[in-house]
Write a structure and sequence with these properties.
This protein is an all-alpha fold. The strands form 2 sheets. The protein has a two-stranded antiparallel ribbon. It has a two-stranded antiparallel sheet with strand order 3-4. The radius of gyration is 22 Å and the shape is globular. Helix 2 packs across helix 10, helix 3 crosses helix 15 and helix 7 packs antiparallel against helix 8. The protein contains 22 helices and 4 strands.
Length: 565
Amino acid sequence: MNGILMMIIAIVVLGGAYLLYGRYLERKWGISPDAKTPAYELEDGVDYVPADTNVVFGHQFASIAGAGPINGPIQAAMFGWLPVLLWVLLGGVFFGAVQDFAAMYASVKNKGRTIGYIIEEYIGKLGKKLFLLFCWLFCILVVAAFADVVAGTFNGFTTDASGAVTQVAANGAVATTSMIFIVEAVALGLLLRYGRLNKWLNTVIAIGLLVAAVALGMNFPVFVGRGTWHIIIFLYVMVACVVPVWALLQPRDYLNSYLLVFMILAAIVGVFVANPACNLPAFTGFNVDGQYLFPILFVTIACGAVSGFHSLVSSGTASKQIKSEKSMLPVSYGAMLMESMLAVLALIAVASFGQGEAAALGLKTQPQIFAGAIANFLVATGLPYQLVFTLINLAVSAFALTSLDSVARIGRLSFQEFFVDDDTDLEHAGPVLKLVTNKYFATGLTLVLAYLLAKVGYAEIWPLFGSANQLLSVLALVACAVFLKKTNRQGAMLWFPMGFMMAVTFTALSMTIYKLGKAFLTTGLTLGTTLQLIFAVLLLILGVLVAIQGIHKLTERSPKKAAQA
């Protein structure tokens, strides 16, 4: 197995899946290519803002991708290249893309409402409350982790063993470019909304802004410490959570999606030019250094195969921007398969290094390993190594910030929706209800808790992300399966992914609780591991309760099925 062969397999499988399985799902679910979506009729200028398919694709792709499909496959490569490749391709096609498509479809058919509303409508109010509480806790966890990652990426200084402080030019360049992106995104948002220009002209302008931001960032790096970046990032996210999506979220993600697509295309070209060897064994064993292939492989590789976070983006933000039903397949199913392609590239990248070679070159983190490998590939085309290495690092880092404010907005919406039912009259609500459903209060509370958790550090809170993220995919699949059944649509393709991921996540969380609980009774826990234990117990309890309610609805016999929505 070499790089070109692995890439050809990925292109054939993922491309064929889109044309065959994606179209099959459209037919089974009765999607009309000419139908306008209910969300299109509900434009409110803040969260419901219809946009062209390419713009919504940019938002979806930029929000779900980030560094996840790079980190996961590289970490999971300890089990060998074959398990990773199989899970990315099969998981991406039959698990992840189906979940993302189903979540968006269910949301669009329910006027752009979130998975929480779908659970309330088709499972029950208690299920909705439990799910939204789970979702809110999950979003706090992700915001805290991503904010700490971004702050570390932007940190302009490093301290060596002797205590000497030096500037990190690459981090400074990433920080400058990301800040320029934000300013450019606001300008592009105004242009897209009021300029009424041809979409190709909009594309040329977006690419021009992207190139300008990268050039300015590399030439004028900003050097600010990690702690200061924590504050700046949370202030930015607080604003990004409440402004209309057309003013920042849509155009910023639109810009960043070009950066990521360019990175993927450049990496594919590099693979075909360099044809890197695969220095990983096909399979190393079911137990590697105490890590078991089941369930570790399936929670380590989330983005790139299946990720519960994607269902929140599909039903929480992207579905509110879809103009017509024909856009759902490329935006949801297509974006997921593109992410799977990125995960295969990450596998090829880590496989190109021999044992200990990456570490010897100073490539320690997953993004560094990926950037170093792709730079090695593209050197064969005549491009300078350092330029490519910096640009790839820049692309990967920019997307952590992209995912950050998307999940923060979803957390805010989940908190607000927790207190609102179909029959809730907010206009005549009491002062307490008005307060907790106020978007500024919901945003502030969510981000304050996330900020406190972020100060504990990424390394302390990230271990829970994989299990919590995959449990969220279980709940999304349960909700979508119940929706499809109750509306007399075919939903059998969701049953196996749902059952398999249920076994994975309940096993992984139980193992985490057992390990931390044992440590608590023997050696004691740090603040970070204590928070891990508390979150693990809460997430497992909430997840099990929602899953039980959903499965009960899924298996009960209904004398009369609901009419199609």
